[in-house]
Amino acid sequence: MGVGLKMFLGYAESVRYLTAVAGAAPGFSGVGVFVLPSFPVIPRAAGALGGSRVAYGAQDGHWEQEGAFTGCVSPAMLRELGCTFMEVGHAERRRLFGEDDATTARKAAAAVEAGLVPIICVGEQHAGDDAAAHAVAQAACVLAELPADATAVIAYEPIWAIGAAAPADERHIAPVASALRASTFSRPGRVRLLYGGSVASGRVGEIMRAGLDGVFVGRGALAVDGLCSIVDEVRAAA
N or C: which end of the chain has fewer CB within 10 A? Predict the structure, then answer.
């Protein structure tokens, strides 16, 4: 399971959070956990989480490893800082910065080139859309640009569920998970499936029954107690 901190916490808050997560990590046995803090916090994540069960990564990255790209961050630098993961294609990046499937694919390929695992976000805009077809098409566009043996994570996040009062239910998620499994089954590289979108303690078991490997959490894990509860629910449902 993963936690994306977005821009919810300040610098000192983020460091305290990561330190608390490291302290709780012995209780995460059997569940792989990663955290994506803001860029300036990543060097401190290395110190706080080093030697723990918790990996860390970045919420975004550029499609080139170096060059004249003001304000951008190189995947190679992220790897140099000890990151394992790089998130690409989140709905907020698409909506606020005009990123599309082609941009997402370039970023994912750069992440793999740098030795990072891309977290590829996919999801439909509206609840009435053909969610499975939309997610498979988005994922396929990105995976086609990666080496066949590359490891990747697909985070299915229906856009209408992000920041909502409740996550999508099992009946909605299950066909999407099944379609994504079928579309990636023949790839030599491992592809793990996560669900994101208003995940909170108490609903994780239902989400996991839809055929996923885990969850991708935002606000529901900003308190370490909430994170620990979600980890327990993932473990129980696995």
Answer: C
User: Could you give the dihedral angle defined by the CA atoms of residues 23, 206, 60 and 186, in that order, rounded to the nearest 10 degrees?
Assistant: 120
How many distinct structural domains can be found in the chain? 1
Annotated active-site residue in 87, 99, 124, 157: 157
Block residue for tokens 């916490």: 9
Mind listing the pLDDT tens digit for each residue in 181-197?
A: 999 999 999 999 999 99
CATH of residue 35: 3.20.20.70
Q: Could you give the residue ranges of the DSSP H alpha helices within 126-203?
A: 131-143, 170-184
pTM, two decimals, is 0.97
Annotation says 90 is catalytic:
yes
Range of the domain at 152: 2-237
157 is a catalytic site residue: yes
Task: Identify the active-site residue in 90, 99, 134, 233.
Answer: 90
pLDDT tens digits, 103-128 = 999 999 999 999 999 999 999 999 98
